[in-house]
């Protein structure tokens, strides 16, 4: 998994995606949940995907290609549910996200990121509903686990699992991660490597 990950393509719309080749793993989630940071932590490249303290950093679908033996691409996505961004922008990002999740044939896995401090929201449930309609396998990943105490983490895991029980297409297991401490990265990398082996 480690090695020479690099940026290959950025697409502001569904009409300008890169030609399909190999498998793709995409990261979806509310603005500021830590999608770009997770890609950096996974690849061990601290500046591969652009991150920011303020929501709305990633505004396009961003494709990264790995070393040959990784055999797949990672796709960073704009965030959804960002209330302070211009309405038209939010609407166009949301449409782009849902279209991509529903219609991309090479998409092999989607990780839906949920901030462990905030838990699952209605906008997340909308994305799960879209994923239920697609043929893509998807799993929920809690982010920023370093920011919550063990008890609160247990509660958010239980609440998230309960919401997932209504989505049989989802992996029932919730992954717990921190891009800051690296917690959960080996498990997430291993899951992706298994995906390629399937
Ligand atoms: P958009 O592109 O705007 O949708 O955001 P994003 O989901 O890509 O989030 P990004 O990776 O840019 O991270 C947002 C903020 O959260 C940054 O300030 C990160 O440093 C911080 N952050 C991300 N992951 C973690 C984490 O695991 N722990 C902590 N404490 N902070 C994190
Ligand atoms: Mg981002």
UniProtKB/TrEMBL annotation:
Cofactor requirements of the protein: Mg(2+)
Listed SUPFAM superfamilies: P-loop containing nucleoside triphosphate hydrolases (SSF52540)
Chain ranges of the EngB-type G domain: 21-198
Pfam hit, one: MMR_HSR1
InterPro entries the UniProt entry points to: G_ENGB_dom, GTP-bd, GTP-bd_ribosome_bio_YsxC, P-loop_NTPase
Keywords: Cell cycle, Cell division, GTP-binding, Magnesium, Metal-binding, Nucleotide-binding, Septation
Keyword Chaperone: no
Gene3D superfamilies on file: P-loop containing nucleotide triphosphate hydrolases
Similarity comment: Belongs to the TRAFAC class TrmE-Era-EngA-EngB-Septin-like GTPase superfamily. EngB GTPase family.
Function text: Necessary for normal cell division and for the maintenance of normal septation.
Name of this protein: Probable GTP-binding protein EngB
Organism (species): Bradyrhizobium jicamae
